[in-house]
Amino acid sequence: MSSSSAAPTAKPPMRDALVAAAFQLFLERGYEQTTVDDIVALAGVGRRSFFRYFPSKEDVVFPDHERCLADMTAFLAASAEADEPVRRVCDAARLVLRMYAENPTFSVQRYRLTKQVPGLRAYELSVVWRYERALAGYLRGRFADRPGGTLRADVVAAAVVAAHNNALRSWLRSDGEDDAGVAVDHALGYVQAAFGHEAPGHPAPDHPRAEGAEDVVVLVARRDAPLWRVVQEFETVLGRG
Taking the model in full, what pTM does it have? Predict the structure, then answer.
């Protein structure tokens, strides 16, 4: 058999091709001006193929969150009784950071696009809420035998999300140039210092603190306040909303 004939260039998976086509058009025309028909025409597939992968145009902007949420849920489900709960949910939040860091260029493009389109910002908040619910669900199980365990679980979950997202946005604003891991570790260190207690063999992470000072944030909210509002208030207290 002759080795001179070149193998045909492999096409990217259809799902990835749709995402690439969508973002090319979003950047060229704008999100609102781009239709699903435009996306499938550029990708060279039919509308049915688009909706096989994405229920809506908004979903193509966030193609990786379903996988990440499944990974987080599995990570929490695999926790051992000896795992310190607050440390465990902080580690779970780092899975989201890893997902963003896998493709910094795409993550920065999505951040810029989301800032420009109010509907995408609302969609993103719904995605964040699902992560928060996963964290809170795990913590509720771990804190079930404690007084106020449900409230503690919800507050810790909101704090973890707020700290993670604060550091994540700082990294995105740097166009992905800064060290995202260091920023997120720094932010989550505050959460662990405020709410965590150490399991044997797991020392607390280093975090900035004046000698003898307590890095504790106390947030007062109405009982019926939505959790996204609690998160927003927490970010404001940290000073980097």
Answer: 0.73
